[in-house]
Specification:
- The chain has about 260 residues and is of the alpha/beta class.
- The protein has eleven helices and ten strands.
- It has helices spanning about 30-45, 75-80, 85-100, 115-120, 150-155, 160-165, 175-180, 190-205, 210-220, 225-245, 245-255; strands at about 5-10, 15-20, 50-55, 60, 105, 110, 125-130, 130-135, 170, 185.
- A six-stranded mixed sheet has the order 1-2-3-5-7-10, sandwiched between helices. The chain has a four-stranded mixed sheet with strand order 4-6-8-9.
- Strand 2 (about 15-20), helix 1 (about 30-45) and strand 3 (about 50-55) form a beta-alpha-beta unit.
- Helix 5 (about 150-155) crosses helix 6.
- The mean pLDDT is about 90.
- This is 2-(1,2-epoxy-1,2-dihydrophenyl)acetyl-CoA isomerase.
- Keywords: Isomerase.
- Belongs to the enoyl-CoA hydratase/isomerase family.
């Protein structure tokens, strides 16, 4: 496993940390696939009952590395060529659908774009009081991917989802709790201790079989749509958005730190 992912085991809890603090854990191809691979590996270890996903430093994940995500894939060249979902869709499909072990998302800092999609794919979320979240997609001329159209609307409903995505406002921990994006806000000085305590308490109180069967049945009960088809629709939509003149203008304006001028084409 690359040093872009840090893994710690404590009792029956495996903590997976995104480990690019110098760029606020921005997603390169290698880091993104590393998250997926780390979850898959944890799935196969019987002694791991619960997974905690968090970031190193002062960020959970600041989204795609816009300087260039690099060229990396754990798949063979042919499988890479034929992969029409990629790592961003595997965030939801792997964390929520393939992995039956509960995943606690410990949002220790900023979570934006695909980084927020990753956080929303977890099953239970705690948020550090100083952390902030942001959709991020509108400012670079894109529509949501990573399963966010499903997980966000599932968490907060249709209108609040539309407002959150289109207004693109920064949401603090208290508002995230009010909206239902997270289940608990933790003061900064108690953060590490509370996350560890919460994860260990679940493992002490609930058997691993009960944990897995509970997630299996709740996911089934709350997933009335074809998640893979939804992820493909997201990808088709964001590609269309990025390919438009307005999409290119949005990214240029973001990088040049100026207001965008949209022309509807």
């Amino acid at each position: 496993m690359s040093n872009l992912i840090a893994i710690e085991d404590a009792g029956h809890v495996r903590t997976i940390r995104l480990n690019r603090p110098e760029v606020k854990n921005a997603l390169s191809q290698e880091l993104a696939w590393g998250v997926v691979t780390a979850i898959e590996e944890a799935m196969d270890v019987d002694d791991v009952w619960l997974i905690c996903l968090t970031g190193t430093g002062d960020a959970f994940c600041s989204g795609l590395d816009l300087r260039g995500p690099g060229d990396y894939s754990p798949k063979s060249p042919l499988n890479t060529q034929l992969d029409d979902l990629g790592w961003v869709s595997q965030f939801l499909l792997t964390l929520r659908q393939k992995c039956e072990k509960p995943i606690v998302g410990a949002i220790n800092g900023v979570a934006v774009g695909a980084g927020l999609s990753l956080a929303l794919a977890t099953d239970i979320r705690l948020m550090k009081r100083s952390a902030r979240i942001l959709a991020g997609y509108p400012r670079i001329g894109g529509s949501p991917d990573g399963g966010m159209t499903f997980t966000l609307s599932q968490a907060i409903g249709y209108e609040q989802t539309m407002r959150f995505l289109l207004e693109n406002k920064t949401v603090d921990a208290e508002e995230a709790l009010r909206l239902g994006l997270v289940g608990e806000v933790v003061d900064d000085d108690r953060w590490e201790a509370r996350v560890a305590e919460y994860c260990q308490r679940l493992c002490a109180a609930v058997s691993p079989i009960t944990m897995r069967l509970t997630k299996r049945t709740v996911v089934k009960a709350t997933t009335p749509i074809d998640l893979e088809a939804q992820c493909r629709l997201e990808l088709a939509s964001i590609r269309m958005a990025f390919a438009s003149e307005d999409g290119r203008e949005a990214r240029a304006a973001f990088l040049e730190k100026r207001p965008p001028v949209f022309r509807g084409r």
